[in-house]
Amino acid sequence: MSPLFILSKNEFFEDNPEARVVPEFDQVGGVVMKFICLIYGYRSPIKQMPVEPRRKKAISLCGIERTPTGRPSKLEKDLLELRDPKIKAAISVFKEIQFDEDVDTIEAYDEQIAEFRDFLRKKNKDKMELEKAGKIGTTLLPQMLEARDLMEKRISSRVDQLSQEDFEEQTIEEEIPAIEKFLQSRDTE
Question: How far apart are alpha carbons 104 and 43 in whole angstroms?
Fold first, then answer.
């Protein structure tokens, strides 16, 4: 699966001019779109980080600076707290355009696995928590990891099914980019 958008040191819309056709993306601007791709993109280079450190890392990678007094800027607060309706709308559209049920399932597994691991790391567990940790460590976590691996293999096999012949037979006209499919679906509603 290829990334929905290109991420580089360039301004977001310089690398992804087609993204401007989606009003929600154009309204929030390139810095916010780069942030959204880093946080929510399936192929984000920081996707494996826990949510809060990932948000802070994305803010840093997007070049969002603090105020001269060292306090978070309005944009940083808006991105950390997700309180701007335009940003929420852009996130919603981004998720809709890139949605893949299998990847979504893997993300759900990843969240549950992270919660299990956090619980196992917890110090000073009482007797009930120790019993729960034993069950998580010996049964639930291994089952979750196995299910996640099976889903990864499913996604890989989807990609592998595309043979070179199939690829060569496709024409550019036959391929409709995700953004165009999204805009077409909006027009029919």
Answer: 12
